[in-house]
Design a protein that fits this description.
Elements (H helix, E strand, L loop, with lengths): L11 E3 L3 E8 L3 E8 L3 E7 L1 E6 L2 E5 L4 E4 L3 E8 L5 E7 L2 H7 L7 E2 L3 E4 L4 H15 L6 H17 L2 E2 L8 H11 L7 H7 L4 H10 L4 H19 L4 H7 L5 H12 L3 H5 L13
Helix pairs in contact: 1-3, 2-3, 4-7, 5-6, 7-9
Length: 281
């Protein structure tokens, strides 16, 4: 087991350096159409991770990593090894992306998923340095922390890709980012429309053109965040429910299973207790 998981798990943020957490699940899970709202790097520690995006299929084993572009939607399957799946993730801040990007004008932007496989021990060590840079602000100076995360962006550039700092967000993503910033707020479509400087009617009409409704996005953002919290923290299910806007843990659990096809307890249940594989997208 990753030694990091022996302490209480939580999502850690360091301004200017990024956000990170460790994923730990005890059952094989299939997650349909999971949207990644921020540019993210994931390193698999234990088990197998498979990502499906259109006709692309990326299989990651321990030591492999993947870069996922902001707004990318893909199916994800995490398979355990002897009852556990482990991975670490880092959300890269836009300021560092903007800093590294000009050094690689010929690189393609990460539009969906980019595999970073077979990079070896040095990459793994660099990833671990990036994790510590975010997790240990008292021990690692700010400039050093930023440099370490930039090193990971250089590893990505070495594969031929960079995260883009100027990606234009469509309406759906703008809505997701607003809700994601305050997931427990009692959001209404009027609130979102006002934040985007448009009338509620115009807002609903534009979303409809993109094949979405406000309520669908609201539920998906909340459930996606809940999934991340259940995998990456030790917070009780009732606490996770409250953090994403549900005062009733039972109502939250019903909604969660409707979205993903398995209950919140399936993520943390005993190894071997396989969840229902039905997926409701």
């Amino acid at each position: 087991m990753n030694s990091e998981t022996s302490i209480k798990r939580t999502v850690i943020s360091r301004e200017g350096a990024g956000i990170t957490a460790s994923i730990l699940t005890r059952n094989d899970l299939f997650i349909g159409k999971f949207v990644t709202d921020y540019p993210t790097l994931i390193l698999v520690r234990r088990g197998k991770k498979t990502l499906l995006m259109g006709e692309r299929r990326v299989v990651l084993l321990p030591g492999d990593a993947v870069a996922i572009g902001a707004g990318a939607a893909c199916d994800v399957e995490n398979e355990t090894d002897d009852g556990q799946f482990e991975a670490d993730w880092i959300v890269c801040p836009r300021a560092l992306i903007r800093k590294v990007e000009p050094d690689f004008p010929g690189r393609r932007g990460v539009q969906g998923i980019v595999s970073m496989q077979g990079l070896g021990t040095e990459f793994t060590l660099a990833f671990e340095r990036g994790l510590r840079a975010i997790r240990e602000p008292k021990a690692i100076p700010q400039l050093v922390a930023e440099h370490r995360v930039c090193e990971l962006l250089h590893w990505l550039a070495n594969t031929g890709y960079v995260f883009r700092s100027d990606e234009r967000a469509d309406l759906q993503r703008k809505v997701r980012l607003l809700i994601g910033a305050e997931p427990n707020r009692k959001w209404t479509s009027q609130d979102i429309a006002g934040s985007l400087a448009m009338s509620e009617a115009t807002f609903r009409r534009k979303l409809a053109k993109e094949g979405q409704t406000f309520s669908e996005i609201l539920v998906d953002v909340r459930m996606s965040l809940a999934l991340s919290l259940l995998q990456s923290t030790d917070a009780a299910i009732a606490s996770v429910a409250y953090q994403v806007g549900y005062e009733s843990a039972s109502r939250f659990s019903v909604r969660f299973k409707q979205r993903f096809g398995f209950s919140p307890t399936a993520i943390r249940g005993a190894a071997g207790q396989r969840p229902d594989r039905e997926v409701i997208k």
